[in-house]
Amino acid sequence: MPSPAGHPSSVLNRRGFLTTTLAASAGVLAAPAVALWLPAADAKAATAPAAFVDDYRTNVPANLTPETNAVVRILGGFAQVWKTGATWDTGAVLRPEVLRADMRYCARTTARRTDAEAKDAFIYDRRHQSYAMIAGLGPLADLYTAGAKAVTSITSAPDGTPATTVSDTVPADAPAGSALGAGAHDSALGKVAELVDTLRGPYASGNPAKYAYLYPRPWRLTEDSEVVDTGTTDAFGFPVYKSDVVVAPQLLRQRGTSPADDGGYPSGHTNAFHLAALAYAYAVPERFQELVTRAFELSHTRIVAGMHHTVDVIGGRVMATALAAATLADPANTQLKAAARAQALAYFTERTGTTADTLYSYAHTGADPYADRGANARAVRPRLTYVLPRQGRELPAAVPKGAEVLLETRLPYLTGEQRREVLRTTALPSGYVLLDGFEQWGRLNLFAAADGYGAFDCDVDVALDAAAGGFSAADAWRNDIDGRGGLTKRGTGSLTLTGRNRYTGGTVLAQGTLVAGGENALGQGDVRVTDGTLEVSGSLRVRGVYTQDAGTLGLTLRAGRKAPLTVKHRAVLGSSAVLSLRLDGERPPAEGTVLPVVDVPRLRGRFTRIEVNSDRLRAVPVYTAEGLSVRLVER
């Protein structure tokens, strides 16, 4: 971490932000926060901070205060737990319950670390972070490294401490034109590599914030966050501090030698991992959640290594989320991000023999360490907050300006305002001290947001277009959706709902296909089909009234099972309503079997046609006042 001129001295100002000024030797004078001659209204406007996406280019070494640096500003929650001192070893703990819990977690993690985990920590400490993220592409990873000409020299870790410092370099036997990190800009995937490098560009460094907060690394601190130098040195000449956090042996010689220039908060590696992840996820949204998961996993190795606190890692993620959004939202990068997405889609579909509609399936087949979405969610969830306690009353989430761009390719069929609603309704609750900072970037939960809405707080009207391909043609919302609003599905494409949904505003299928992927998929309101196909993958419970004016209801019949559609109140069938029955392939019902289809207290109307996907059997309807059954007979 190169040191800027001068030494920072810091105090907490009245707004709870950390204010840092440079000594006169730096040649920089702090400007007054408010021009005193301005009228009150104008003064307030003059001091109102700009939105991060409009101000991210202020993140440069010369700017070390929240008033001058947008990154320092959004990380201001840390000033509530730690008061920066005049030097690196004179800070004070403001929230001991937070920092003690952090130190205990770090000490426990390094004490339980296995030899294999220590080696992994070394690899991800030394390997270029953009290259390390490529594995999140799963079945597409090898194709990416070949197409981007991306290479690394860090392929293994020593058993003990290396004799010298180690850096990632282009191997001597690498193909001509190879490059570290995301790869070469003149390669077949050069635009993607360029996008990654742009997100990790000159305004993305964590160093200014490190100098602003001067929070020592965990191996220099005690549980009470008091720096205690034992007066001795280790075998490598490093001072020994009184700390229970043990650095991985492979990294002992890789540590920073100047404590004043080696701050922990925020974690620079974490920032880099998440920036690279979100750049790849923009270009290859078919692997959005898996890339986010890998960023969390690799960031956790910074704690396992003994090199960073949990709070450092949280800070690195928060700043990366904001920086990625700002860079992607910057008009200067509009053409680049579009070219990167187009290039990735063309490259991967050509190499895999897929289309925009089938690439997602290919990208989730074969060997993939992130194949289990449930396991991914369980890995991400606790690392969003680590040891942070939740305090205070619940406050509504405020989605930062420009954040919707992070979902631009993952949810391309939604409007910008709808993507903001997705971010808002999937955001973390308030009350976490490091996440409730300026604009609340830390509350965004991108893993959850990739699965669509978390609530319908107002009516949602969504259209998917089968001709557009990819997610615009077919997508799935996997969250448990709450709220008083309802859903209207339009367009020729397909939308699948799989959550245990509790929204009460009802569901309308106007066009295309709506797939109910669970018994409670369509919430607790009425369901109406005016056109299109309502597919029920297993069973569906309608808590209100089921109305089918036209269109098709698709159900699967299984031997010995209850009715696949249960309606609580009544069902009304129009003159153009069609029923399409599929016979379960594993447990097909036998000829002559009478099976329940619709279980409802009151049924009005009849299906105009009943289809069966069998060349041998047809369905004879048996209507009663309480529903519909069918008898399977030979054609």
UniProtKB/TrEMBL annotation:
<protein>
    <submittedName>
        <fullName>Phosphoesterase</fullName>
    </submittedName>
</protein>
<dbReference type="InterPro" id="IPR011050">
    <property type="entry name" value="Pectin_lyase_fold/virulence"/>
</dbReference>
<dbReference type="InterPro" id="IPR000326">
    <property type="entry name" value="PAP2/HPO"/>
</dbReference>
<dbReference type="Pfam" id="PF12951">
    <property type="entry name" value="PATR"/>
</dbReference>
<dbReference type="InterPro" id="IPR036938">
    <property type="entry name" value="PAP2/HPO_sf"/>
</dbReference>
<feature type="signal peptide">
    <location>
        <begin position="1"/>
        <end position="30"/>
    </location>
</feature>
<feature type="domain" description="Phosphatidic acid phosphatase type 2/haloperoxidase">
    <location>
        <begin position="189"/>
        <end position="328"/>
    </location>
</feature>
<dbReference type="InterPro" id="IPR006311">
    <property type="entry name" value="TAT_signal"/>
</dbReference>
<dbReference type="InterPro" id="IPR013425">
    <property type="entry name" value="Autotrns_rpt"/>
</dbReference>
<keyword id="KW-0732">Signal</keyword>
<dbReference type="Pfam" id="PF01569">
    <property type="entry name" value="PAP2"/>
</dbReference>
